[in-house]
Every structure is written in C-alpha cells, then in structure tokens.
Amino acid sequence: MTSIKEFLENNEPLQARINMTVIVMSDCFYLWYFIKSFDKGLKTRDWRFLFPFLAAFFAFTNNLNDIFSFLFSELKYECRGIFMTIFTITATLNWTPVSWIQTLRLMSFTKIFYKKPVFIAITVVNVLFSTLYTFSYYLHLINYEVIDNIAENTDKFMFCSVKQKDLGNYKFLGIFDSYTRAVMYFDIFDSAFSLGVLLFTAFMALDRTQHLKFHHAKIKRMVEEGFFQFIILIVSKIAIYSIMFYFIKLMVFDVIWDLLSVIVIICAFRLVNVKYKKIDLPEDDDDIF
Fold first, then answer.
1. What is the pLDDT of residue 207?
2. Which domains does the chain have, with CATH numbers?
3. What is the pLDDT of residues 242-255, one digit of tens each?
4. pLDDT beyond 70 at 95
5. Neighbouring C-alpha atoms within 13 Å toward the C-beta of 263
6. Hey, which of 56, 113, 172, 272 would disulfide with 34, CB 3.0 to 4.6 Å?
7. 43, exposed or middle or buried, with CB in 10 Å at 0-12, 13-18, 19+?
C-alpha cells in the first residue's frame, strides 16, 4: 500500500496546489494579526506588540511574494531577481521575533517564582538556545536558491520556489547535515526546555501553596502571565516539528511550516495580549526557590 509520503513524492502538481491553497489561506491570518497587533500596539503603547506585529507583517509579505509570483510570472516576475530578493528580505523577521518573545515571556514568568540565582541560570540557558536558533535560522536563510524547472514539474502551476543548497560533506557544528535541521532542532530544544521549566514551576508553585486563597492567587498569577498560551505555543512547535521531519524533503514541507507559523503568530499575539492585575502574596510565598 502506497504511503502518503510516497504518493506526494510522485505527484508534485498536487503538492503545488496544496501549497498555494495554504499560502493564500494563511496570508489572510497573517494580515489579520498584523492589523490586530498594530491596533493593540497603538492603543496600549505596549512595545511587546512589536514582536507579533513584525512576525505577522513579514510572514504576510513573504506569502504575498509567492502569490504574486503565481499570478504574474508570465509577465516576467523574475524568480532569480524580484522573487528571490523579496523572499530573502521578508523572511528575515517572520520567525525570529516569536522566538525572542517566547524568551522574554519565560523570563517574565520565572522572575516571579524563582530567586535571583535560579532565575539567572534559567535565563542564560534560554537565551543560549534562542541565540543558537537565531544563528542557524539566518544561515538557513542565506543558503536558499531558486528551484529550476519548477513550472515543468508542477504542470505550470507554480513558477517560483526555493530550496536549500546541498551542504555536501560539510556538517553544521559538526552535527547537522542541513541548516534546516539545525533550525528545527534548536527550536525544539528551546521549546522543550521552556516547557519543562513551565510545568515544573506550575507544579512546585501549586504544591507548596498551603492555603486555598494563596492557591487561587498562584493560579491567577500564572494565567495572567500567559501560562496557557505559552504551553499551547510550545506544545504546537514540538508536535508539528515531528511531522515536519517526516516530510522534510517534500514540497508540502512548506505547508506544514506555514500552518505552524499561523499557530505561532496567534499564540504570540495572545501571549503579549494577556491582562495584568497585581496580586498580593506574602513574602515567604513569593518564590519557589
């Protein structure tokens, strides 16, 4: 029986149609969250809305470039010229801002519950993973090249697309055979570390609470720090990356990446959009460690 992967490998025109459908649909979400982030940023004067604003704007323009190449390639929308230039520019900030808002939110969350030495240790590890992710992401970005014969392979449905250049015998950091895998692994490491810290913090915070009113206050504090939005964001990354590894060499890999991008931007917006209210707790209950 033919697997889904084998079926798609032998049907590039279908992959191209799935790609373009998802690109158009996801672009609507990007535009909506770009507008929402801009509006919220103006109303609240909260600089953190800059993160989902940039991510949504650059993701929107990146997908719009794909749509224009689809619509206007017959009018000389040059793949190696206009398309590649716009692709590179618009891909610079469509993912990394969310990684850093995730880092800042973990810092904000752990600062409440941990004493300074533990908070600093967690922050150092978190920043290290985010830095490695960002570094590998930009190496990944400058390693793209235009795919030749994409029009013929997709029955002239797509005209411009990109792929990663082969690294040959070179291994990034002596481990990864492609920058794409490095991006995915470092994002997973970053997310898994954040998830572990969040779950451990939540368990310890609630387990050490002696009185019902303090138990309720701890829950409120975690909710108002975007705990659940954070969990959804991180679990989505880990789960969807697992699917992406399976389809990494297929054209539909970009579809899964786009779906994850939509989830990430929505969660990033909601993570910044959490409402704050000061909760008074006794000093001896303020820190876990």
1. 64
2. 4-285 (1.20.1070)
3. 889 888 888 888 88
4. yes
5. 19
6. 56
7. exposed
